[in-house]
Amino acid sequence: MTDASAPAPRRPGEQALATLGLAAPALSPADASAHAFPDGGLWRTEIPSVEGPESLAEVLKESARLDVPIHRISQGSGVWMLSDADITEMVDACASRDIELCLFTGPRGTWDIGGSTRTDSGGAGLRARGHDALAGCVEDALRATGLGVKCLLVADEGVLWTLHQLRARGVLPADTTLKVSALIGPVNPASYAVFEHLGADSVNIPSDLALAHFTEIRRVSRAPMDLYIEAPDDLGGYIRMYEAAELIRRGAPIYLKFGLSKSPGIYPFGAQLRETALSSARERVRRGRLVLDLLGRHGADGGMSPLGSRLPGPLNRFSLTDDKD
């Protein structure tokens, strides 16, 4: 939680620029988010693209060495690319550090036989094509939560709504959290609110949204944002380290995701990509340290959620109809 008695964070270069008559316009309080996590924190951290137990071990080792706090670890290849033993090892390792583990659910359009995703338009993108793909995502969700995974990553609105209904009915554990992938992330306040109402507990937004867009979203929704401070190349390769404090101010509650540009893709992960996965896992942690150091230098590192925090608090949902009605 932010200390009200602490001095206001300074903006990058502001004192030197002011001496030249180049001071930036004053920040408007109206742009700031009025929301926070239920623990009072404004931001949490996430290390994405951690594709298996070996990569996870590297992340945990490096985060201890560099003193990088981690609230969430996420994986991108999918539950179906991990054995039960892999998942159990990852669950236990994250539990030992009180970190939330998030695994991606099932079949997605970019990997199936549909040709439209390979056209210039991209077709339906990551979405689950047909009943069988939807069923595969549900199967992944049931398997993962049965092995102790508490967070599921989804890339389809129908999958999200289905898993939310199963959670409400007790088929999935009530404390399961559902996270929307950056590859279908909303780009306006109305679509963001729809994802919240469909059951999302955090929503990846594209890393190229303007600062004003963050404020617009926060005026209609308090669902936590997930944001790549550094995005992988297939999401644009944007690096927004110097904006981190302002992104927190406007976007809270927000997960700061430490991605990695200029790095080969590793989805779906296998042993042929081992060295790339391990080296990029370590570098993502280092990138996180750089962001945290920058926030610290500017006096903007306050307001982090306590480690171990994972739930989003009350959110707005569409009503769930009883099939007996």
Kindly list the characteristics that best describe this protein.
single chain, alpha/beta, 8-stranded parallel beta barrel, 9 helices
Structure, described:
There is one protein chain. With 325 residues, this protein is an alpha/beta fold. It has helices at 14-19, 53-66, 84-96, 130-146, 157-168, 189-198, 211-218, 244-251, 274-297, and strands spanning 43-47, 72-74, 100-104, 151-154, 177-180, 202-204, 225-230, 254-258. Strand 2 (72-74), helix 3 (84-96) and strand 3 form a beta-alpha-beta unit. Helix 4 crosses helix 5 (157-168). The longest helix has 24 residues, at 274-297.
Strand percent estimate: 5-15%
Rounded Rg = 20 Å
Strand order within the widest beta sheet? 1-2-3-4-5-6-7-8
What's the total helix number?
9
What is the mean pLDDT? 92
Question: Which bin fits the share of residues in helices?
Answer: 25-40%
Question: Could you provide a short overview of the structure?
Answer:
The chain is α/β, with parallel strands linked by helices. It has helices spanning about 15-20, 55-65, 85-95, 130-145, 155-170, 190-200, 210-220, 245-250, 275-295, and strands at about 45, 70-75, 100-105, 150-155, 175-180, 200-205, 225-230, 255-260. An eight-stranded parallel β-barrel has the order 1-2-3-4-5-6-7-8, surrounded by six helices.
List the helices and strands and how they pair.
Layout: H1 14-19, E1 43-47, H2 53-66, E2 72-74, H3 84-96, E3 100-104, H4 130-146, E4 151-154, H5 157-168, E5 177-180, H6 189-198, E6 202-204, H7 211-218, E7 225-230, H8 244-251, E8 254-258, H9 274-297
Parallel strand pairs: 1-2, 1-8, 2-3, 3-4, 4-5, 5-6, 6-7, 7-8
Helix pairs in contact: 2-9, 4-5, 6-7, 7-8
